[in-house]
Fold this sequence. Notes:
Strand order of the largest sheet: 5-4-13-14-15-12-16-19
Number of strands: 19
CATH superfamily of the largest domain: FAD/NAD(P)-binding domain
Helix content: 25-40%
Strand content: 25-35%
Number of domains: 2
Structural class: alpha/beta
CATH architecture of the largest domain: 3-Layer(bba) Sandwich
Distance between the termini: 49 Å
CATH class of the largest domain: Alpha Beta
Shape: globular
Amino acid sequence: xxxxxxxxxxxxxxxxxxxxxxxxxxxxxxxxxxxxxxxxxxxxxxxxxxxxxxxxxxxxxxxxxxxxxxxxxxxxxxxxxxxxxxxxxxxxxxxxxxxxxxxxxxxxxxxxxxxxxxxxxxxxxxxxxxxxxxxxxxxxxxxxxxxxxxxxxxxxxxxxxxxxxxxxxxxxxxxxxxxxxxxxxxxxxxxxxxxxxxxxxxxxxxxxxxxxxxxxxxxxxxxxxxxxxxxxxxxxxxxxxxxxxxxxxxxxxxxxxxxxxxxxxxxxxxxxxxxxxxxxxxxxxxxxxxxxxxxxxxxxxxxxxxxxxxxxxxxxxxxxxxxxxxxxxxxxxxxxxxxxxxxxxxxxxxxxxxxxxxxxxxxxxxxxxxxxxxxxxxxxxxx
Length: 383
């Protein structure tokens, strides 16, 4: 196996896992993360099935399982907070549900043992060419890498630079053409939206049962309280045409959409004033075509995502393992990256196949659809 000098952009679940796996395989790995530390926002995530095997392979199962939230039941409630049915949310007792920040922290610690992990920095310019990728960092330095892995999430700056029409000649610095050691054909990224937005915020709530996630619905919106292993939080998921980027506009949209909502909506909206960590984003499906371009490859949500509906964390772990394995087995970078995409893309698309049904379950769009969802939920309790 040839050892490569690799830059991983992003220290989320995909990037940290890639850093740990690639570093252990003997590559010279640098991971950059634009945040000053591991980001704490977002909902709890699942590690299950083959993704659990990735964690085991890294020797991290005990560390990850230590942070399991313990939640195993979803309780659906009416406007007054009365439970009308419950659903088991773990198909296998070995599945792990863990706060995103905890999983990222465990993986980042593992990456730091075998890679140079730099927080509060990212790339400012990527200049791919036949001999590698010249990278200018926001911190001011310049370095050359054999391969750049864009693991910087749904809103990937790596993908914007090389896959999306907004890319400019100055950003690409002459290296995005197929003749510069790259893959032939046009690179593009499609983004489709199921017209959902999600906002999550940790709140100091009293939780009756730490194993139970509680969800209330009205047509087009839901409120969910998650015990999150002792760090409870609230999720607002609702149908909308777009998600503003400004914090004040985000809070304003939440107040508008949930002003007349029942249960504890008024209480949760008031708490937004003092909330320090509000996560807010639209739910979008991202499809990069292809996943690699010359010496730059996308991983995790940067390549293909559907935010909360596509098993993103498990897919990130599996994708990192697929990329690591392909680089170990491939005779050259092009062959390895082709093998990585051929192996992992079908897995991701199968996982995303039920996204539309998932959206309808979480946020039925009409009163009739909500009624049907509730009937199905009652039936599921008896299965």
